[in-house]
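Handoff note, outgoing to incoming analyst
You'll be picking up this chain. Sequence as last confirmed:
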Amino acid sequence: MRRIFEILGSSLNLTWQEFRSHKVRTLLSLSGVAFGIFCIISVLAAVNSLEYAIQKDIKSLGSNTVYIDKWEYADGGNDYPWWKYVKRPNPSYDEMAMLKKKVPAASNVAFNINTTNSVEFGSNSISGVQYYGISEEFSNIQPIEIQVGRYLQQSDFDNGSNAIVMGYEVALNLFGNAEKAVGQLVKLKEGKRALVAGLIKKKGKSIIDAWDYDNCIILSVAYMRQMVREKNSNPVIMVQGKETVPMAQLKDELAGAMRSIRKLKPTQENDFSLNDIDAFSSAVSDVFGSVNVGGWAIAALSLVVGMFGVANIMFVTVRERTPQIGLKKAIGAKSSTILTEFLLESAFLCIMGGLLGLSGVFILTLISSALGFTIFIAPSILLLAVTICVVVGVLAGIIPASIAARMNPVVAIRSK
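Most recent structure output, in case you need it:
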């Protein structure tokens, strides 16, 4: 064990001496390794962080949940058949009520409509506010944290009362102090007056804008119907399955129930979409997997270039130290020791290049807040970076180290 540490110390010392003696040459040669590590780690860190943020937002849509809509969420791109979906009928509140009776596999069924409009208080007016008109079981699928005041009660849904809960940013912009919103009367679309019953706890930004709770008001469907037409307000039925019910069974029951409600003939195709949130999450993972492959391809090219640069340094180093190698072998150093020293030196050089690349990634993490999500570097990614550096270093140094290990001590000592 002591001998191993002596070899490690000697290799590290020689590497540092090489760097101090030829700073420019070493830095230029290590630039390829640094860029390759930067590409790999930055792409992996950015993609993993972005995927984590998006998957977190997707999960906020509800676990084990199906969104019944006229639109297909998973499709996209130039081949998206919007002309087919636009002709479909919108889901309705009445269909939601019937699904509660027809689908035993469902634990919660909710209806949601939404629009964008302004909210006024006195002389202050906030535009672009999301209006979410919801039914009773919405909060079971989408838990909403109330900071001050209360959430909508059953009587609010039954009577279509003018009680609302308000998002934190809306309240802050209207009243200066968000908590002052509770108990105030505000003016909504069509001049309707509403009482702020509760304040939603601040959520922060969402990558996919699934639910913009900070910039919204939540009210009952019955009350929102007084301001908008249901079919023109993006109606969606949300169905959450029971914990013991597989998603496939839930979707089968929903498909059968919806076909029955809409009286579709056996030969007619579905005029609705069952959007499985779990399937949507898997599709997102596949997309990010492809992005990772692209990042690896770019980084691999950079690492190959960097490997040749390190190999060039090692060839020059072997030539410069040929007399020293001969002297070491003459006093008893084994060929395996010489080989190990040069391989470790090559690996240390690549690790230095990797540290340069990682420094660039850490700078990227510091400015990531401007991207709308925080980039973090997982420990597994750091371990991967070190492993890549060691592997590249060994591959780059194997030929020069082998040449050094096979040298004849007498010939080596006499060389200039």
